[in-house]
Amino acid sequence: MSLVLDPAAQDLLFREARTANTFTDEPVTDEQVQAIYDLVKYGPTAFNQTPLRITLVRSPEARERLVQHLAEGNQAKTAAAPLVAILSADNEFHEELPQLLPHFPQAKDLFFSERPARESAALLNAALQAAYFIIGVRAAGLAAGPMTGLDFEGVRKEFLDDDHTPLMVVNIGKPGENAWFPRSPRLTYEQVVTTV
């Protein structure tokens, strides 16, 4: 059975897509980021909670503040990327549930009145949305360089607040010269799928 998605789109989103380590200096516009979000916002999350929050790091001053919280191997590429996004989980996402889940507004208090339950749900569902975001960047014809080599608490204190948990930093732009490391192996279908 073949996939319905055009092979060129399959390549763009998956087979040929890679984590970029260098970028051109072509800017990434707010319109491009909005188009990415307007596509990926339709990806499913539990209770439609959509806890992902995106902080765009554009100013040179903010970029300098961010770079100092990254692992050494991530600093230069982040300093040079056209756009950097901090992806975080909003642990107070439940406040939006009456709007996002109008047919079940009581879910806010029934399932998410306690902070530990919200943190667990926000982390899982924002990570899912972060994956959608990376696919959306690719769908826009851009490359993403997601990174978790960072001081999470430092990034939280510098850019967020106690209600947000940083997940990753994503460099975004057109891939530059020598942007790709060699592709690493993947597990086979037989290694991953079990039928019971």
Can you give a write-up of this model?
It is a single chain. The chain has 196 residues and is an alpha+beta fold. The chain is 43% helix and 15% strand. It has helices spanning 7-15, 30-40, 60-67, 72-80, 97-100, 107-112, 115-139, 152-159, 189-192, and strands spanning 52-57, 83-90, 143-147, 164-173. Helix 1 (7-15) packs across helix 7. It starts with 6 loop residues before the first helix and ends with a helix. The model has no long low-confidence stretch (mean pLDDT 96).
Tag the structure with descriptive keywords:
4-stranded antiparallel sheet; 196 residues; 15% strand; 43% helix; alpha+beta
Q: What about the largest sheet?
A: 4 strands, antiparallel
| Largest sheet: spatial strand order | 1-2-4-3
Report the radius of gyration as a whole number of Å.
Answer: 18 Å
Query: Helical segment tally?
Result: 9
Quaternary structure = single chain
Mean pLDDT: 96
Note the run of SSEs as H and E: HHEHHEHHHEHEH
Shape: globular
- First and last CA, distance: 22 Å
Number of strands: 4
Proportion in helices: 40-55%
Strand-pairing-aware structural class: alpha+beta
> How much strand content do the residues show?
5-15%
Low-confidence stretches: none
Mind sketching the topology for me?
Layout: H1 7-15, H2 30-40, E1 52-57, H3 60-67, H4 72-80, E2 83-90, H5 97-100, H6 107-112, H7 115-139, E3 143-147, H8 152-159, E4 164-173, H9 189-192
Helix pairs in contact: 1-7, 2-7
